[in-house]
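Why does residue order matter? Because the sequence determines the fold. Keep that principle in mind as you read this record.
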Amino acid sequence: MSNQIEIKVKGMTCSGCANTVTKYLENQGLKNVYVNFTTDEVRFTNEALLSIDKLAKGINSLGYQAILPDAQKSSFINFNNIQFKFWVTLPFTLILMLHMFVNWHPLHMAWVQFILCLPVAAIGFWHFGRSAFQSIKQKLPNMDVLIFIGASSAFIYSLIGWLVYNANMQYIYFETTASIITLVLLGNMIEKNAASRTASVISDLEKLKPSKATKVIKDLLSANEIYTEVSVKDLNVGDLVLINSGTLVPVDGLVMKGQATINEAMISGESIPAAKNIGSKVIAGTMILDGNIYVKTTALEKNTRLSGLIEMIKNAQLEKPSIQRFGDRVAAIFVPVVVTISILTFIINYIFIDKIVSESMMRAIAVLVISCPCAMGLATPLAVMVGIGSAARKGILIKSGAQIETLSQANYYIFDKTGTLTTGNLKVSDFKVYDFSERDAKNYIHFLERHSNHPIAKSILEQCEDWNHHNIAFNKIEEIRGLGMHANDMFGNKYTVGSLKLVEIPIKTNIQADIYFTYNGKIAATFNINDEVINAAAQTIKAIQNFQAKTMILSGDSLRKCEDVAKQLGITEIKAHQTPEQKLRLVKKLSKEYKTAMIGDGINDAPALALAHVGISHGLATDIAKNTSGIVLTGNAIDQLRTAVGLSKVTYQTIKQNLLWAMLYNAVAIPLAAAGYLSPILAALGMAFSDLVVIGNSLLLKWKISRSYK
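Structure:
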């Protein structure tokens, strides 16, 4: 039996750190490992039921700090905090670098520079050295390997210059060691703080989970209500909770008393506040704008829809897009390649270009420091995090990062009709009479349909109240299940309302309709039942077609009704009268030639939703349809589809831009450093700048989405 574990790991500063922790946990046999350095969150499936304490010690040995769920928060300073390390090293580095600008003799003394550099080196070698060693041990060398080799090389070279060559300043580069360490710490700190902003949707949703609730208990003796403030975690299913105006709903439940208006936009994406009355469902995390309600709890805190939404967003980052797997493969061989280039840089400069040892070494160190595998590692996860988070804010639940890439590339959209392109609300049209009073025909039809539970009958009664004029005395009224109504009056006249199969009109008749009303075997009236097209459907179809994608209606409904909807929406391809098996076969065939997106809501759509490259359903769909879909639209589904497609394309474009920048940066920066155009100090600044470009572009994506998809 699987065992899902979630812990916090402090001290991770970049994607390389996350990869090191991930590799370690996977090597222990753990499954579904998810590590997010921006939130310090580590999750995994512990199927082998390994000791969590032992795993925590293993993580600690990597140079990080694992905090178990039941561990108490410490009030002491966290000395492993990246901000603490940076602020300790900064003053020593600034003083040390003054010798480059101030002609004060003590600053030019080797032993003074050594003393100033020593605290910085100690922090840097411990911070980067432990991470570098453990990453090599896990066979996944990270950026810290490059930083450690570069900083330690400058430090050791300076020590030799001081102790062996009598403090000849030509050999002293203590300021280089300190600058590399301090600037990289600064870059890590900025990177983590900036990257954390891209993951804000999870923290925003977590804030919607109230910790307290007002529990209502009936006093058995006095029959009075007792109100007690309790922790939401202590509530049980069936408990009654009072929720007042202006507060967040603490639980999923049913309204038992009172009325309220609730803003559910954060959960459903629906901007219009919802009115709640007795029997209405409420969702944890939504805000009561007006009113007071008593709610019976229907789900525990961990099982609420809000908790499920948070879990879905976290899980969405587990499955990597194929473009990210490419970036990961490049990053995996990046460090060994850069170390090799650094060694060659020293050899070529010293032996073939005839540079002195110190200059050749500085160029080799610059190569190590300027290179940035972190930018490549951050390129995809940050953009995916922004895309999934922004979609969730709009009520679009994307179950994996891979679905963003797939949807952005989809070029064939297959739509179910009823409930997807249409409202599902049936509408009466084209009423015609044949040698019969229209007023009487409508009255007979209305009276007969009162005795039916069929959805079409209910629609007729709701829309056509003005058809009812007087009651009719029938001797016998019978419902023929699925076909219509049959009745006899006291004079022996026969009446039927229903489909062609029920009324038994000869097939050769040229009267075509959905519903027939007959009197003594002759057609007295006919009318059609149409499914109303959703208002936003035409705009969505046009937007998808503008992306050079094909569209098709795939429905079990009649050809005439499918053609009617297709004509209104500008869809030319139609497959009607389709069984679930036929839908599956068609999607399978199309998926061999196109990137398919199937949009549906019913049980009969589930197989096709699962088989398509990306399945899309909406919040009112059946559970089976939602479970087999990669994307769930919780609000105005067909309108949200347009948003989801546009959002996926701009997110995928950002991923490609990030990867292109990371590759071009390294392709240009490494040769410049090898040629001596960049000092190690400038290289350290350039490395931090590279990360910030990727982070900034991902944050720009957040702005683009907020502006374009309000």
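The two ends are 43 Å apart (CA to CA).
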